[in-house]
């Protein structure tokens, strides 16, 4: 066992490289996914059929096909048509499109949850569509979508482990190499689990911070205590800052 | 583009049709509102009053006919014999002259009171921030909300929210103000405060106003003319004194009896 730890310590630089690759895929994939989600989420809402139709098709296609197959397809099939990309770019593309399709449903649902009256008030103030979305609707929908996006981000992180199969040297790769070096399956895979867990925990923590900030902007939060911030589960809603005496003018 | 002059009505409805599916709400409605007049629309629910305001704010699409603002086509026009929709870009030019206050206030919860008011003056009208803030402060003073300037909107009571909403609409300097049952969602003891604010605005500006309200006393005080609607048609039209004391039409008598008790 102490040999195992010695091997692990020797391989820490490799772990750092692996974590870096995993983070690149996760964050790159998340950024692309968010772009895809916003475009498809709004696309699925429009009245215009030639926007809504393709949006729905893309969403259903990427939700309805396996991530591994998508990865393999982009990595092995596309080059046969002359499109060759680096493995990291392939992983980011596949993860971004796949999770973006899921996230687009989150975006669509959250946008739909913003009361119709908000759109109407913005029209009455003669805002353009883009202005309404950017300054009024999205900031409100954002607070609603963060918890669900946080879930998807964690799934994206875990999904990125599949990139090992298209030659990327991520945390999963490091785990497999560790097993090869130690010949101790329990030890290596447990180490792998812990590394993913720590990354997932940090991402959750970051998303909780974002959620608190978004809620505070809506006047629904107070600055959370350190314990609440570090806790895995954010409070659903905070009491208003000032207890309101209704009827007091 | 025509400029506002005494002769051109602020608002003109020409053969306006509005259908929701098979339900015909307005069927060839004609009426006009002279510049600066205050018109109250009364009538049972479903009579099309609110639809008229929503059409004027482009929250609903016309099914037929025309709406003219200061003589300018707004959402649709005739090109030859063809009835065509006017694109959003042109609608926005005319929409700048129209403002609306809603029953449910609809303040933006992601902005403070002040930010709610200056958002469109800065980003739509292109005012400088300093100018917009100065205007907003003047309006907040007018509606008695100066102290709440930097509050979140959900820290305000309903009456306070509505007063901010009124200031927000006025900050766009509208020629026409649409008031859609603005006191219906308020506690009874607050209604008088909000109506007081509106009364002052009516007394100190020459904004054309179109009100849908169940506050008959208020309608009597501020309006120049009252239109009684039933089933999408104007059944009676009179000055408030006549309308409320001596209505001629049987439908109006029934309605007023029901609401005034």
TrEMBL record, chain A:
NCBIfam families (UniProt xref): ectoine_ehuC (TIGR03004), HEQRo_perm_3TM (TIGR01726)
Family affiliation: Belongs to the binding-protein-dependent transport system permease family.
Subcellular localization: Cell membrane
TM spans (from-to): 20-40, 141-166, 186-210
Gene3D superfamilies in the cross-refs: MetI-like
Principal localisation: membrane
Presence of the UniProt keyword Cell membrane in the record: yes
PROSITE patterns: ABC_TM1
Keywords, comma-separated and alphabetical: Amino-acid transport, Cell membrane, Membrane, Transmembrane, Transmembrane helix, Transport
CDD domains: TM_PBP2
Top-rank taxon: Bacteria
Membrane topology reported for the UniProt record: Multi-pass membrane protein
Sequence ranges assigned to domain ABC transmembrane type-1 in this UniProt record: 19-207
PANTHER family (alphabetical): L-CYSTINE TRANSPORT SYSTEM PERMEASE PROTEIN TCYL, MEMBRANE COMPONENT OF AMINO ACID ABC TRANSPORTER
Protein name: Amino acid ABC transporter membrane protein 1 (PAAT family)
From TrEMBL, chain B:
Record GO terms (molecular function): ATP binding
Location in or out of the cell: Cell membrane
Ranges where the ABC transporter domain occurs: 11-256
Database matches in Pfam families: ABC_tran (PF00005)
Topological relation to the membrane, as annotated: Peripheral membrane protein
Manganese keyword on record: no
SUPFAM superfamilies listed in its UniProt record: P-loop containing nucleoside triphosphate hydrolases
Keywords linked to the UniProt accession: Amino-acid transport, ATP-binding, Cell membrane, Membrane, Nucleotide-binding, Transport
Listed InterPro entries: AAA+_ATPase (IPR003593), ABC_ATPase_HisP-typ (IPR030679), ABC_transporter-like_ATP-bd (IPR003439), ABC_transporter-like_CS (IPR017871), MetN_ABC_transporter-like (IPR050086), P-loop_NTPase (IPR027417)
Family: Belongs to the ABC transporter superfamily.
Protein name: Amino acid ABC transporter ATP-binding protein (PAAT family)
Annotated source species: Isoptericola halotolerans
